[in-house]
Write a structure and sequence with these properties.
Structural class: alpha/beta
CATH topology of the largest domain: Rossmann fold
CATH superfamily of the largest domain: P-loop containing nucleotide triphosphate hydrolases
CATH class of the largest domain: Alpha Beta
Radius of gyration: 24 Å
């Protein structure tokens, strides 16, 4: 009779719960369900649990409802995007790299780790939105129109509020952003603040990235600072995926003549000297700045402005795939030994 009653209870469940139900058992007035919640974010899981309990608690022979949730653990890798100094377009590169990877079919989240000067909410058009928290008190990232969920201090602080925190507080904020409920995201692009300070050190110590992308302009001063950023990643044994040269070449909108206000080829030459890959060059274009300010990342389109970001994303994805393949071979060889 109990088995029959368990089958009857299944028919009462909402469609989503039925689709994800692994088992349901009624014993001594306690209904125990196991649900597969793979791919659902924290808010969706909470809603599913509430819906199931609301339905079953209405049955006279059900005194208690226990819900167990299972999901295959997502193997999540972090791509750190860093620079040695501010003003080189690191945040723009981070946003467009994430969008370009998502357009390739990768499941990507974006962390704005620039605690004191967050900009990703503006770049991905979700300013003013606030993240919710799961029952485990984890933040749920804010969706963006471009298929990339985002978390930023801009989503947590009041608009225009200055963040006056000492290093440990900034490090804890970073941990809260990265430890959020990212659902099925397999990659997290982390937009680091400029320089080599507390936030970067927290990232290395608590969340070792799979690799780092370094952004620089071609000018000598930026390259000197980029070299310091690379040195920090080298010391932490974080592989440098490659270097991006931003603001390289300006085409006059009137005559079409190309000039190089910040120089040309410096980042590519520096990458070669340091033995790192050169990922690509992004031109200095007014349309990239205008679209970014309007929350329309160029990488989301199909115009010529999208191509450099798509090329960089493809090289980053290839590096990650090759790295994962090499890691699997090492693991399998170790298992055989």
């Amino acid at each position: 009779m109990t088995a029959d009653r368990s089958e009857q209870l299944k028919t009462l469940l909402p469609p989503l719960a039925m689709a994800r139900l692994q088992s349901l058992r009624l014993a001594d007035g306690v209904a125990t369900l196991v649900l597969d919640v793979a791919g659902l974010d924290g808010l969706e899981r909470d809603r599913l649990e509430v819906a199931v309990k609301d339905v079953l608690r209405g049955e006279s022979d059900v005194n208690e409802v226990r819900v167990a949730m299972t999901a295959d653990k997502v193997s999540r890798r972090i791509i750190a995007v860093g620079s040695g100094k501010g003003g080189v377009g690191k945040s723009t590169v981070s946003a467009n790299l994430a969008v370009a990877l998502a357009r390739m079919g990768r499941k990507v989240g974006l962390v704005d780790a620039d605690i004191y000067g967050p900009s990703q909410a503006r770049l991905l058009a979700n300013e003013g939105q606030k993240p919710v928290a799961t029952s485990e008190k984890k933040l749920v990232p804010v969706p963006s129109p471009w298929g990339v969920p985002v978390l930023s201090m801009a989503h947590l602080a009041q608009p225009g509020q200055a963040i006056a925190w000492r290093g440990p507080m900034a490090g804890n904020a970073l941990s809260q952003l990265i430890d959020a409920d990212w659902g099925d995201a397999e990659l997290l692009v982390v937009d680091l603040p400029p320089g080599t300070g507390d936030v970067q050190l927290t990232m290395m110590q608590r969340f070792k990235p799979a690799g780092a992308v370094i952004v620089s302009t071609p000018q000598d001063l930026a390259l000197m600072d980029a070299t310091r950023a690379i040195s920090l990643f080298d010391q932490a044994d974080v592989p440098v995926i490659g270097v991006v040269e931003n603001m390289a070449g300006y085409a006059c909108p009137h005559c079409g003549e190309v000039s190089d206000p910040f120089g040309a080829g410096g980042a590519q030459a520096a990458a070669k000297t340091m033995g790192h890959a050169f990922l690509g060059r992004i031109p200095l274009e007014l349309s990239i700045r205008e679209d970014s300010d309007a929350g329309k990342p160029p990488a989301a389109g199909d115009g010529p402005q999208a191509q450099p970001f798509a090329d960089i994303a493809r090289r980053v994805a290839t590096w990650l795939d090759n790295r994962a393949g090499a890691d699997r071979q090492v693991s399998e060889a170790g298992a055989r030994v």
